[in-house]
Amino acid sequence: MTRKQQLKWWQEARFGMFIHWGLYAIPGKGEWVMYNEHIPVREYEKLAAQFNPVKFNADEWVRLAKAAGMKYIVITAKHHDGFSLFKTEVSPFNIVDATPFGRDVLKELAEACRKEDMKLGFYYSHVREWRDPRAQSFEPKGRPDVWGNYGNFWDYPKESTKNLQDYIDRFDSPQLQELLTNYGDVLTIWFDTPSHITPAQGEQLKKLVHKYQPACLVNSRLSYDVETDYASMGDNEIPAAGKDEPWETAMTCMGAWGYTAGAKCESWEEMLGKLIDIASRGGNFLLNVGPDALGVIPQAAQTELRKMGRWLEHNGKAIYGTSRSPFPADPAWGRITARGKKLYLIVRDALASSVTLAGLRTQVLKCRLLESGKGLSFEQNHDPETDCHVLTIRLPGPAEPFRVVQVDLEAEPSVSARTEPDADGRIILPAHRAELMTSDDNGLRIGPSGVTENWIRTGDKMQWTFETGRAGMYSLTLTIKTGFWKLWDWDHEINAEIDDQIFGVTIADDGRKTVRYEERTLAACRLWLNPGRHVLTLSPEILTSRNTVGLTLLQCSFEPVR
Ligand code: GLC
Questions:
Q1: What's the pLDDT at 138?
Q2: From the CA of 487, how far away is ligand 1's center (Å)?
């Protein structure tokens, strides 16, 4: 299989299991316990003598992944703590030489994967390593906004002891060679936290991976400056807009990535909703489990994953091998995926009695429930005056959430690029579809998850052109989104110019605690809109950036005022 074929397989696979497992499962406080508690290397390594996961069973892990509908597994071969989950000649700090367990987990997992036709990849922390003095680069103090390097500054306070090149040459490289020659075909090396690696060092490691396995995929966390096979989004981050190039969101369903005692597991519906969200944008979902110190994946996670698998058994055609939604915005009732002359409408609300889809120009031949094949009645209307296309499909009585309607078309879908009101008349204007009016490339931009970044200059503006099919009173709202660091800035003063009207909008804080990737919708103004084309321009009067992030706008929305 060539790397191109492997990447195609990976994209069509859509759904994989991430496994974070190691010595940190013993304290059960997540995989960062050594850093969070500044545990000295000499202390932390004592955990190895206690690590005896006698209930580890690779076949059970692989069968669970399969039952969940997952097509590949990525496991932490070596995490930031420097402990290797496999027999390695590079360091005695590994599961075979340093623990009473003494078995090569990756060897057993690779064998179990081969039996179940499950592909296997390895997570590898190539720069951040809290055991080895060469690998560290420690964080700039007191700058929560700056991506720290989060190295072991308690054992190795002197920057001068660091020698990342030597670590790459004499630790990373021989270990990667072992991983790529001793465990059969490797789907991907999943690098993490590139930190201060140089472009040349990134290229060096990519070349090494492809020297031993040319078809092995490399993710974007290898380096910020090296072309890789697919993009890893921020942790738990789902992009707001569909993307054509290959990408993946890694997400944990139980708080931290490594085993955390007492952590709650998300419900299967919540996790399935994320898989559907991600697939509708053309991405892969790498969903993490953290086995405990005995090698058991928490029962709650097993139960919910199996429920996801049951849905995928009946509706997997709407996920595996599909491409992203061809529509410019998500419908209010759910998400859309596509394949050739078919659309899959995934309806979140179990009680919905119909769905409406605006903007589809292609003739619909048939609509049916994917699971039962039951035909559904539908109407497809086109208003030549406004060139509005509306498809309405009636749904049978109440059912499970996430019903899938398969829509057979006479050709591949042709969709209006216009921003259309959705079935509820809402007009959503995502930031990623705005025209940015900036004087140079150093200002306002749209980040990977579709949120404005670096909007700190009042001269930078955003503009949307949109249509309204119906006259009426609308309420304009702005949705701000926080990022990984839960940060946002407020007390902005914005002029919202709609056609020839100007409304002053203040974006103020309401004192609530912010959480990671949180969306906050703020009412801006109310106004009357006549049918036809309109232009919305946001031009800031005042922008603040006390938290350095400026105005992080996800979207504007005109909601009809009933
Ligand atoms: C972050 C964490 C790391 C985890 C990774 C998973 O980089 O530092 O512990 O393995 O996310 O995506």
A1: 58
A2: 19
